[in-house]
Amino acid sequence: MTSPPPPLASPGPQRRPSRRLTVLFLVVCGLMFVLVAAGLQFLGPRSAPPGVTMADLQGVADLQARFNADRGQPRLVVIFSPT
User: Fold this and answer.
1) What pTM value is reported for the model?
2) Which candidate among 14, 55, 66, 75 keeps its CA 20 to 30 Å from the CA of 4?
3) How far apart are CA 67 and CA 23, in angstroms?
4) How many other C-beta atoms can be found within 10 angstroms of the C-beta atom of residue 57?
5) Are 61 and 52 within 8 A, CB to CB?
6) Quick one: CA torsion of 37, 38, 43, 44, rounded to 10 degrees?
């Protein structure tokens, strides 16, 4: 007969990351955010692809008429609100 395995040792108290490590992590995250935003700003497309237009609608009736005119095609409705 074999003896049972010894109990696992407790890991001890959990260590929190040092303040310096936390600040370094936040700085690196902020730098990555700035780099991605700058890349999108300077390397992104300057205008829409050919054939893509944006319509300035004056009311719900205009939206409904344009939406129904494109039956059978993929449609995207984007609403910009100042609030």
Assistant:
1) 0.43
2) 14
3) 50
4) 14
5) no
6) 30
